[in-house]
Amino acid sequence: MKTYLSLLLVSVSLVTVAPAQSTKTASLPRVQLANGTLEGVQETGGLRSFKGVPFAQPPVGDLRWREPQPPKNWTGVRKADHFGPRAMQRAVFGDMNFRSDGVKEDCLYLNVWTPAKSATDKLPVLVYFYGGGYIAGDGSEPRYDGESMARQGVVTITVNYRLGVFGFMAHPELTKESPHKASGNYGLLDQQAALAWVQKNIAAFGGDPKRVTIAGESAGSTSVSAQMASPLSKDLIAGAIGESGSLLGTLTPMSLAEAEALGTKFGTIVGANSLAELRALPAEQVLEATAKSATPRFSTCVDGYFFPKPVSAIFAMGEQAHVPLLAGWNSEESGYKAILGNEAPTVENFTKAVQKLYGDKAPEALKQYAPASDAEVEQVATDLAGDRFIGFSTWKWTDLHSQTGGKPVYRYFYARPRPAMVPEMGNATAGLAGGVVKNTDASAPRQAPPKGAVHSAEIEYAMGNLTGNKVYGWTPDDFKVSKVMQAYFANFIKTGNPNGAGLPAWTPVEPGQPASVMRIDVTTQGAVEAHRDRYLFLDQFFVK
């Protein structure tokens, strides 16, 4: 069975090139890769960047809904001075700001920021997968920018992958034509192809292929859990970081048969009676069809190839990548209205909502999520909503990996709320950060910040990118939090351990015990998890 990496190695053997090494002109840095020569940009402080680097062939025509194929060789010098196109996607989320070269089906590009002086530096590597529910996102988003992390001594990469119907549709005809008798999960296979590309090429950028840590937020975090679980990827990584989410309860893979049925339904919706007709449709027409209410939502599946069995079974049996894991979630991953709707936050209304959700299990739920008064309902409902959305799956991932993964697990709880928005930026730059609400009145007072750390709030802090987001009025406390969180991440990428000089000591999780957890806020400090029983309660509803 040929994998992307084996095909890539074959393609490399057909190319006569000098050994992988970095060279530099007077002003523009160059690297010699397996497929040809790249010319990037010389940034300040000795940093070099290479953007829009192809790691696979364009997935168009007959390559639509196929596993990614190794990139073709090019002649001459290929410029890598701007971001490539982002994957086909609709404008769904208000917290995304792109620097990409439009939206195209031809989207399989990555971006590299390196502080290395030569190819022999062997620096640690970070490969980051963006979030967006597998329907949106891009490696060009400023919040994921790799420059700041590269200045911490890490070769940093952001990766594009196919999304939505293009990245995750399965279909009986696709399964039949596949040499692996599998279909779907193309977005995850794109990520795996990027990791294989890194193994072959990262030394040219001064990176060490044996020190590759993968990271991501939301769908990017679930992608990290996916790459850990897949036999195609697990030997390509040395560490993993997850920010809010895993496939153990969020975007959990369905069966191949279920996924194929959704693909067949989609074909009916667009009037395509065969795979050939589906591939013949213009990409824009395929994308627009996903806006229809009847169109199914495409996600991951147990295809028998990328996932030979359910992800929960892989982790339970200890068959995942045995690498250190750092993962956690935020204090306000979802809002209390996800539980209460438009009802007032009272104990009576909360009780009714929980009874509706859990039926005969409601008494047990109300024991774990128990507001003592109306004043506590909003927070308790927020906790339940966040746990149901993404907190539980992240807890499950860290808990299970601590028992079967054979390497340290570090868990965090991120609690720093964003500051108030800058009024004059509320309308002009809405979309730069999660949860932005447009404010058309520049003379209005600053909007009140959220009470907790909302979903995706930690990204700019962890990646050291606060200054790239002009929407919020960052304070010295925010930069203090960012400095600590980025230091933890950088240390972990370098050594598999987040601890370092000047940082509060972070104790790893003990298998099966109330876990040590690092609460990241203005005053960052270690603690013991306070609500393990909540997650043990929710575990009974997890579809294994």
Protein model, in words:
It is built from 18 helices and 17 strands. With 544 residues, the chain is α/β, with parallel strands linked by helices. The longest helix has 31 residues, at 374-404. It is globular, with a radius of gyration of 23 Å. The model is unreliable at 9-26 and 427-447 (pLDDT under 50).
Blueprint (SSEs and pairs):
Elements lengths: L3 H10 L7 E4 L4 E5 L2 E4 L1 E2 L5 E7 L22 E3 L29 E6 L8 E7 L17 H4 L4 E5 L4 H5 L3 H6 L8 H16 L5 E11 L1 H11 L9 E5 L10 E2 H15 L4 H6 L2 H7 L11 E2 L8 H6 L8 E6 L6 H4 L6 H12 L3 H7 L5 H31 L4 E6 L10 H4 L30 H5 L12 H20 L20 E5 L4 E4 L3 H8 L5
Parallel strand pairs: 3-6, 8-9, 8-10, 10-11, 11-14, 12-13, 14-15, 15-16
Antiparallel strand pairs: 1-2, 2-3, 4-5, 5-7, 7-9, 16-17
Largest sheet: 11 strands, mixed
Helical amount: 25-40%
**Count of discrete alpha- or pi-helical segments spanning 4 or more residues:** 18
Nearest-integer average pLDDT: 91
Low-confidence stretches: 9-26, 427-447
Straight-line N-to-C gap: 28 Å
Radius of gyration: 23 Å
Annotation, overall tally of beta strands: 17
> What is the beta-strand fraction?
15-25%
